[in-house]
Structures are given as structure tokens and as C-alpha cells.
Design brief:
heterodimer, A: alpha/beta, Rossmann fold, 39% helix, globular, B: mainly alpha, 2 strands
Chain lengths: 250, 324
Amino acid sequence: MLRLEGITKIFGGLTALEDVSLEVKKGSITGVIGPNGAGKTTLFNIVTGLYTQTSGKVYLGDKNISLLPTELLAALGLVRTFQNVELFGKMTVLENVMVGLHTKSRSGIISCAFKLPRQIKEEKQIKEKALHWLEFTGLAAEAQNTAHNLPFGKGRILEIARALAVEPQLILMDEPAAGLNSQETAQLALLIRKIRESGVTIVLVEHDMDLVMDVCDSVIVLNLGKKLACGTPREIQENKAVIAAYLGDG
Amino acid sequence: MTKEKREIIIFLIFTLAVLITPFFLQGSYFLNVLVFIGINTMLAVALNLLLGYAGQISLGHAAFFGSGAYISAILTARFGLDPWLALGVAAAANGVLAFVIGFPILKLKGHYLAMATLGFGIIMFIIFNETVSITGGPSGFSGIPNIKISSLVFDNDWNNYYLIWIITLLVMLLSINLSQSRIGRALRAIADSEVAARVMGVNARRLKVQIFTVSAVISAIAGSLYAHTMTFISPTSFGFNFSIELLTMVIIGGLGSIYGSFLGAAILTILPEFLRVLHDFDIIVYGLMLIIMTMYMPGGLISGLQQIAEFAGGKIKSRRANHA
């Protein structure tokens, strides 16, 4: 589904990522872990076109997406959430999800301004679909609330709902459990499984090891910009190099 | 009542109020002020689409207003073109101009965009002021013909009122429609988080240039109508001060509210009539208004009024609950 070949990213004198190659299988939940500064978010930013890699290639399925701009990736089925929750704060919860359906609709400025019949029909479909995703994620009761009034945990879920509205093949989640309490994290785990069951591949960067070990099929460990290990959660837990990276090898 | 139905009813009430207002007014002075409010409403709505929805500032919007006015004036007075045709040419020319300059400068953000649009406004003002052989320079351009529909000439306040306000209502309606559509949502998404909007597949760059163009076209139409109703124009109407006045209208009325733009335009059109005693110091009052509004009512008067209404509504409700 997603394949990275020899990704290197250099910021000035800092090598954030060095020759990272990895593959994410279709329908899997893959965790990317590593100490702070390991390059996890940089990796996401490269895959989603927000950064351009110094060298290396990114494939989505068979398609080389290495140099595609961010805004074209949604239509190809690749979407992400953000570590620092990037909601459209002044819009309602429903409208946030409706923006997720942007690539599923076509009406331009003229047909929107004149409310042409086709646009009215399209608008109705957008709203129905958006409501569906709010139901799916359990946010339906919040539909008319303004997004920045949502409690933090629900904001994280809204980001996921908005990403689902794109009807992606692959979702990258950047620390979805950061700032959530244990109950919210448990609900998140359920939601992540439910999304996978609907046929979407998931990659998550996460610091919450319980969540990673609980939901992931495979785990990739980054340290200091290099791939340190990959394998099943159990293999990773027993990997000496990983333990050393996290705890120090003193 | 659904949100959409409520919007339609509000618009119909507003339209009705606009259409019957002249029957309650004595003399041409008030009608004349209302014509200016109409033109300023168009301009404020145009700037609001850019600033209030897409979150992109322009400190040079008076330039599009001026360019629309001068193109229309020159084409009709010098080359005898029909005013309607001239209006179309002025709108199209400003659309092209906005597209050409918008493409590079909308890459900029925040202060840099403010500076670039400011520079554009100043360049255009210098052109209006200095190309004396074309624009008449500082002494202005007179003898601009009125707009005609067959034998109906828009040369008195009564006719002008309906001409300006029907077009203003149309601009408002189309802008309201736009703001509630996928394009409107995409614009607001760009304003709130451009990176998230792009991840959702919104082509932020293209949409910003498009809305900048639309905004310029509306401003140029307002400029052309201004030229044909006033029959005389001069560069002072299209300078930096007026760009700031437009900005003040949009912010005082309420960013992202079309009726707010009307409110802001109305206040800033009427206020100078009272501030005449202050002469050039009136800009201090505008500055103070901007500061006070952004500090205490950042959503503008419209959202302030809504809050008051909700607060009052809530009090009534809770009082009823107490009684029951």
C-alpha cells in the first residue's frame, strides 16, 4: 500500500532521516515509534508532501507520489491527522467533516454562487455523507457545535472523522492518543480497529506503547533518523537494540 | 425552521426594506447617502470574501475600485462606448489584472501579503494621479455619461438608488450562496488551517487566486457604477486611506458576515457626515474604532448583536423556567 525507498531528509546540517525504507501492507495497522526527535513526524510530512525529501522515493500502491503536492494526495486516497490537532476552529463540527468531502464534489465558484441545481444536489449529498461519518465516529450529537469549543479528546476524533470523509485507502495518524485519558484512549483503540475493518490501511505515530502494542499488526522503530527495527509488537518488545534506544544501553 | 430557510427569509426581508426605503425619505440628500452605502457595501462584501472568508488581507483594494472607475470613464467619455459594455470591460480587465498579480503575491502570508497589496495600491494610485493625459490627474475626470437602459437614463438619485441597490443585492445574494457552499467552506478552512485544508484536497493556492479575482471583479463593477452615477471621479477617492476605510468596514461589521459588511459600510458612510468638523483627523476615529472592535468585539458588530440577542433570549428562557 505504502512503500518508502531510501528516504533521506537533511535540514541544513541536520540529518533528520537517513536512508529509511519501509513497507506498509494493505489493510494493516502499522505503528511508527521512536524516541523524541527520531524523525517520525518528518516522515509523515514527507509522505504527505509537506516536506520534500532530499532523496528517496514514496509509492502509494504502484504510483510514485514522491513529488506530488499535498493537495493532490487526498484524491489518491492518502490523508493524515496532525499531532497538534489542526481543526477548522471557527467552523461547525459538521462543516469540518464536509471539507473532508471537498475532493468528492466538483461545483466551482460560478455554480456555487448561482446555486445551480447540480450544486444543490451535490450539497445535499455532501451533508448526508458528512453526517454518516459523524455517526461512524460517535460525534453526531456535536454536529452543530463550533469545532474550537470541542473538548480536546473529541477534537482528535473529529480530525479522524474529517480524514475518513476523504474515503481514503490510507490514513496516517500523528499521535492520535496524545493528551487523551485512558478511557478516551480505549475508545480510540476501538475506533482505529473499526476503521481498519472498513478496509482502510492505518499508519500511526504514537508514544502510547500500550495503544501501539494493543492495535498494531507491525511496528517500525526509528531512532536518530534511522530505521532501527521492524516486526510484530512482540518482536519489538524483545528487541535488544530497541530497549537500548529507549532506556540507554548503560 | 432550517438554517437555509432562515437565510432566505432574512434576505427577503432585507430586500424588501431596501426596496421600500426611498418612499419614506424626503429630499435627495438621504438617497444620495444610501447610494454611497450601496457602493460601499459592494466593496466591503468583495473585500470580506477575501479577508473574512479566505483570511487573506488586502491593503490595496481601493486600486481595483479606482481601476474599474477609470476604465469605465475613459471608455465611455473618450471612446463613446456604451456604459454597460464599459462596465463589462472594466470588470474583465480587473479580473485579469487580479489574476496576474494575485498569482505571485498570494504566495505571501500575513505581513508580507499586507505589504505587497499595499504596494500594489500605491502603484495604482500613482498611475491614476500622474498619467494626466489619460486620467486627468489630480484635477479629476469629468463628463462621464450616465448608464442607460433604452430610454431610461440613470441620472437622478431615485433611479440611481434602484440601479445601485439591485446590483448590490445581487452581489450580496451571490456572496451568501458562495459562502454556504463547498467553495465557501474551503475558503474558511484555508483561513483556519491552510495545511489541513490542503491535506483534505483543497487547492489552497488556486482558490486564493480565484477569490482574489472575484473580489477584484466585484470591486471594479462597484467602481464603474460609481463613475457613471457620480459622472466625476478623482484619484483621492481611490487612495490608501480608502483601502483602510474598506478594511475598517469589513472588520467593524464582522469578518465573514455579508450583512456585517452592509452594517460596516453603512456606519462608515454615515459617520464621515458627522465627523466633518474633525477634518482630516477623522482617520483617528477610524483607528480607535478598529482598536476597540478588535479588542472587545473581534467578531464585529454582527456577532456582537447576535451575542446580545442570544443573551437576552437566554435570560427570557431562564426567567420562564423559573416561573414554571
